[in-house]
Design goal:
With 419 residues, this protein is mainly α. Helices cover 74% and strands 1% of the residues. The longest helix has 49 residues. The chain is globular.
């Protein structure tokens, strides 16, 4: 799954984590200020934030881009020398580009959040004092938003286009790798499906989850300081009272509660999903054999195989029943949770409409970042089941021991598949 696309996967991913930690550490310890040496200094402390599209070609943004791509170039060059690999350009440079475009989209969210303040304060002023705000001022704010939105559209479309090619390259790498071992792999149950379908699903699902994770981490890094600054205006939580950094505390605790709750009630889903693929593969395989052999795919055999399919589906439906009850209930409460937290502050009139919108957006961004597992749990379950199927390939190629769940089916001529 990984060795076909990444050079020395175990060491590679450890080096990725170490290099990111080093790059982030240097940035925090002073690399942010190095841009002054090339004419790209950071803004003075206390300077108002840039509102609008100009933030994307500001000097701090340009210096970050130079720093990021210099770090990527050093990392890619080191691996190209240490372990040349056919897919390095896609696995390293392609991954770096997707991460960078994800960062641009996060910066769009930050720019829109900064725009919320002056825009909604303008709306409040217009509603409270007729004739106080000119129509040109109002439409000027909307024009500022449209410019930022254009950046969002461009970045989003380009990211999706490139990610599609990235996923297909990864699938191609896995396809070539497994086909080169086909004489060994052909004896595994559903081998054709695993190469044709599971490689496609694995690469696309990992890419989706990876981008979502990177987006969540970057959003958290970008919005957590914003939320901490805004927490100065919100010092009290309902039923709790005064709490330092109240908004941050509420967002973290609520997200952790939801993540733990859904992980608990969904613990059986990965195994059931994996078994579902096995019984479907056994049923489909018998039908395929029946197309060429009159002695195969007899009604009794097919009925037994389909009974296995039905049994596992009904178990899956039942488990998803209570899982979805918990998930949907949590997400519905989540829609109004920010207003519950802000209730005392709103009633006290301690904030303006513009500041309220900034707080709501920043709170939602931080909370949703911590809820990565909540929103991705169903996809993670699907990925785990695909991973278990492809692990059999890895074990067979490497001469290792097959996973226990595979053992009964491999090399067996029996019709039934254990549930």
């Amino acid at each position: 799954m990984f060795v076909s696309f990444f050079p020395r996967p175990r060491i590679f991913f450890l080096s990725v984590v170490a290099w990111i930690a080093l790059a982030v550490g240097l940035w925090s310890l002073g690399a942010k200020e190095w841009g002054a040496a090339v004419g790209l200094p950071q803004p003075p402390v206390g300077q108002p934030p840039i509102i609008g599209v100009a933030v994307f070609w500001s000097k701090p943004m340009l210096w970050f881009c130079l720093y990021y791509w210099a770090a990527v170039a050093l990392f890619a060059s080191a691996w190209r020398i240490a372990a040349p690999h056919r897919w390095t350009r896609w696995s390293i440079w392609g991954s770096a580009l997707i991460v960078f475009m994800t960062y641009v989209q996060v910066r769009v969210s930050v720019a829109i959040n900064a725009w919320f303040g002056p825009f909604y304060d303008l709306v409040q002023a217009a509603l409270g004092h007729v004739g106080h705000v000119k129509l040109s001022q109002f439409y000027g704010q909307l024009l500022t938003f449209s410019q930022v939105a254009l950046i969002a559209v461009t970045a989003g479309v380009l990211t999706l286009f490139f990610a599609s090619h990235y996923v297909f390259r990864w699938r191609t790498a896995m396809n070539d790798y497994y086909i080169s071992h086909w004489p060994t792999l052909r004896t595994i149950e559903g081998a054709s499906q695993r190469i044709q379908e599971d490689t496609m699903r694995f690469s696309s699902t990992v890419e989706d989850l990876g981008v979502s994770l990177v987006n969540s981490v970057m959003t958290l890094i970008a919005f957590l300081p914003v939320l901490m600054t805004l927490s100065v205006k919100v010092t009290t939580l309902p039923l709790v009272g005064a709490v330092p950094h109240a908004l941050v505390v509420a967002a973290v605790l609520w997200a952790l509660l939801g993540t733990g709750f859904l992980a608990l009630i969904g613990v059986r889903l990965p195994g059931l999903s994996f078994r579902n693929q096995r019984v479907e593969a056994a049923f489909r395989k018998e039908l395929v054999y029946g197309e060429d052999d009159e002695g195969r795919a007899r009604p009794a055999t097919l009925n037994e195989l389909f009974a296995n399919v039905r049994t596992n589906y009904f178990r899956l439906y039942f488990n998803y029943l209570y899982f979805n009850v918990g998930r949907i209930l949590y997400l519905q409460i989540d829609n109004v949770f920010a207003y519950v937290v802000l209730g005392p502050t709103i009633v006290a009139g301690a904030i303006t409409l513009g500041l309220l919108q900034q707080i709501l957006n920043a709170f939602d961004q931080v909370r949703s970042s911590f809820q990565y597992l909540v929103t991705s749990w169903t996809t993670i379950v699907e990925l785990q089941s695909i991973y278990k199927r492809l692990r059999a390939f890895e074990a067979t190629i490497g001469g290792g021991t097959l996973p226990a769940i595979e053992a009964p089916a491999i090399g067996s001529e029996t019709v039934g598949v254990p549930i």
